[in-house]
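Sample 3 of the quickstart, ligand adenosine-5'-triphosphate:
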Amino acid sequence: MEKKNTINPHTYSIDEILKHFDCNENGLSSEEAVQRQERYGLNVLEKKKDKSVLYIFAEQFLDPIIYILAAAMILAFIFQDWIEGFAVLFVILMTTLIGFFMELQAIRSVEALQKLAPVKSRVLRNSEVQNIESSLLVPGDILILEMGDVIPADARLLDSNGLALKEASLTGESHQIEKNTDKLDKETPLSDQSNMVFSSTIVSRGNGKAIVTGTGNNTKIGEISKLTREAEKVRTPLEKKLNILSRKLIWLTLILAALTTISGYIQGKELLMMIKTGIALAVAAIPEGLPIVATISLAKGMLRLSKENVIIKKLESVETLGEVGVLCTDKTGTLTENKMVASSIVVQNERLETFNIQNQDLPVPEEQKERLFQVAALCNNAGFDKENSGDPVEEALLGFVTDLDGDWERLRQDFPRIKEYPFDTEKKRMLTINQENSDVLVCVKGAMETVLKHCDYLQTGVEVIDFGNKEKWLEEGERMASNGLRTLALAYNSVKELPSEPMSNLILLGLIGFEDPPRKDVAQAIETYRNAGVKVIMVTGDHPNTAQKIGEEINLIKSGSNSENIIYGADFNNLENISKEEEKKLLNASIFARMIPEQKLNLVNLYQKNNLVVGMLGDGVNDTPALKKADIGIAMGIRGTEAAKEVADVILMDDKFTSTELAIRQGRNIFENIRHFVVFLLSCNLAEIIAVAIASISSLPLPLLPLQILFLNLVTDVFPALALGMGRGSKNVMKQPPRLSDEPIITSGRWKAIVAYSLSITLAVIAITWYAYSFKQYHPVIVNNMAFYTLILGQLLNVFNLASRESSFINNEVTRNKWVWGAILLSLLIVVTAYWIPFLNTMLSLQPLEIDQLLMVILFGGFTVPLSQLIKRTAHFSGN
Ligand code: ATP
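Result:
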C-alpha cells in the first residue's frame, strides 16, 4: 500500500538521492517498478468516494416535478381512486428509473472518455526512454523533462538544461521559476526549491532529468488538494437552462390544469371527474426528464466523437461547440501536413544565389558546406531519441545533411554539445554551444528577421566578410516565403572561449526553405465553415508571406488578395486604445502572422469582446493561456504538449483540422435534437390540455379520460421524443450561422411552432369528437375512444413536423432517423396490446370500434400533418 515518504529531497545531493531511492541514472528495471508499484500504489490523487448507485437513485426523487406527482398520487389515494393512484405511482417510478439509468450512463460515458486520453510521461526504464502512463510512475523513476510537459509527480532534478517551470498551479506565482540541480538547505521554502519539480506544474522552457521522489497523494499538490477533492455532479449549462424551462412549465401546466378543472365544473361536469382530469393533465403535461435527456444526448455526442478521434473532456463543451463563430488555428501540422522537406537554400559564393536542393546538389566550396552541415546537425534536437521523432523542421535539416552526403552523427561526436538555449517561440530561434577542438562553436538557427539582426558577418565561399547588404537577403528570404516555404536562417561563430553574449558577432551561412504541403482535406473544411458562418483564422508564428501562400492554397483567402487580410504580430500589441476602424480591420483579417503566444491571448480577448464564441487550436505550452481563455480550447493529441492537452476542452487525437468540423457539426446537431425533443413534447402536451379544456367548457364529452392521459404520457409522448433526441441531425446544420450563446432553447419562432402543432392536433380531436357526438350521435364511450385514438395518431405523426423547413418532407433528418420509426412502431404496438389485454382495456375504457369509425380516426389523425405543414411553411416561424 502507499508508503509515506518523509524525506526532504531538496536537501540531498544527486548521489545521495539516487542512493536513497536505490537506483541509478539509467532508471529502474521493469520488475523493480512493479514491486514499487505494490508498495507505493498508483500515482493518482485519491478521489473522494464517488457517489453510490443508491445515492444517485435517491437523488432522482429530490425534484419539484416528483413532489407534484407525489401530491397527485396522494390526492388520488385520498379519493380512493386506487387505479389512478397506482398509475401515478407508476409514472413516478418510470420517471425516476429513466432518470437514474440515464444519469448512470452519462457518468459512465464521461468516465470512459477520461480514460481515452491518459496522461503520459517519458521515463527511463531498463536504460531506455519509455512513454508510460503517468499513473504508473513510482518513486525512483527517472523522468525525462521537456518544454510543455506537465510534471506528473514530485521529483528532484538530476540535470537541467535551461529548465524553467511555471508553478502557478501550486504556488499561485505566475512567473516562470528557473531550476538547477544544486543541493539546498532544509529551511528553503517550497517556492524557492529550485532543484525540485512539483506535480501539476509545467515546464515552460528547457529540458532536464529528474528522479521521482513522491507520487499520488504524497506530493505537494496532493497535500493541498486533499480537502477540496470531491466528485462533482455533472451539470451542464444546457441542463440548467432546461431545468429553468421545466420549472416555468410546471407553473403554466398547473394553472392550465386548474382552469380546465374549474371551467369544466362550472359547465356542469361532475366535480370529481374534473378534479381527476385536472390532476391527470398536470401529471401528463409536466415535462419530466427534460434535463436528463440533454445530459444523455451530450454524453452520446461525446461517445460518437470519441470514435472519430475527437475527445471532449467536459460535457458542456459539446454544447459550446455548436456556438463557435471563430476558429483560430495554427498552421504547421494542422493546416499543413507537417512533413517538412528542405527544398531550397540561399547562400553566397561568388554571388548571392538560390539553389534547389532537392536535386541533391549544392555547388559551393566544401568548407562552406561543412559549416552549413555543422549548424544543421548540431543546433538540432532531432535524431537523439529513437522513439520520439522530434521537430519535423529539425528532422528535415538532418535529411538535408544526409542528402548532400554529410554525416550528422559523426558531427555530433566530433563537436560535443556544451550548452543549449532551446527553441523559444517568442525569440523564434535556437542556439547551441559545442566544443570545436580547443575552441567553442556557437550555432544558431531561427526566423530570418531575428537571426539576420545579430549577424555582423557573412560566409562567402570559404571567406568570411562583413555583412553589408542585409536588405537583399531579406528580399530573397521573403521571396522564398512567398512560395509557401517555412524559412530558417543558419548562422555560427567560432570563438576561443564560452561567450558571455552568444548572439553577437554571428556569421550568416544562409537561408533554408522547407516545403510543407497543405493537407488535402482542409480546403473543403474551410468551405464548409464558410457556409456555416464560422470564420477560420490562421494564427501562426511563421512569416506573413509563407502564411499568405498557404492561406491561398487552402482557400482561406483569395489568391493575390491584398495585405488587409493579413496582420503582422508586431502590429498587434496594444489593443487598449485602438480606434473602431482598426478594430474592424483586425476583426476582418483572416491571417495573423509572426504571432507570439501572448498575442494569441489578445486575439481571443478581442473576439470575445465582440461577442464571438472562440475556438482556439494550439499545441505548445505557451498556447495554454489562450487555450484556457478561448471558449473552446482544442489541443492536438499527437503534436500537443501535455500542458496544452491538460487545459484544453477538446483533444484531436489525429491532429486533423477536419476533425474540428465533425465536432462543431455534432455540437450543433445535439442542440437541435434537444430542441426537437422539447418542441415535440410540449406540442403534444399542449394539445392534450387544450383539447380537454375546450371539451370541458363546451357541451362535448371529454375526449380524454384521466387514465388515458397518463397512458399517453408514458407511451406516445415519450418514445418518439426520445428518438428525436437520438437523431444524427440535419444536413443543413452546417449551412446556418452559429447559434448565439444567449439564444433560448425555445425561441419565439419555436413557441409559435409549438402552438401551431398543438392546435392542429387539438382541432382534429375536437372535430372528431363533435362529428361523432353531435353528428353521428355515437355513445359517449365510442366518442371518447375515437378522440383518444385520433390524439395518439396526431401525436405520433407530429414527429414529422420537426424536420427543418429547408429539407424535403419525405427525405429529411426525421425520416432518416431509424429510432423514430422504431418509436412509432413500438408505440402502436403498445396501443394495440393495451386493447387486447383485458385489464388495460378496462382501465382505459376501450371499446371495439367499427371499421368506418377507425377510418374516421385515420382521416382526422392524418389530417394534422398537412395542416401543421401548411401553417409551418406559410407562416415561416424563425428557426423551424
Ligand atoms: P505554425 O502556425 O506554422 O504552426 P508556429 O506558430 O508554431 O507556426 P513557431 O513554431 O513558433 O511557429 O515558429 C516560428 C518561427 O520560428 C518559424 O517561422 C521559424 O522561422 C522559427 N522556427 C521554427 N522552429 C524552429 C526551430 N526548431 N529552431 C529554430 N527556429 C525555429
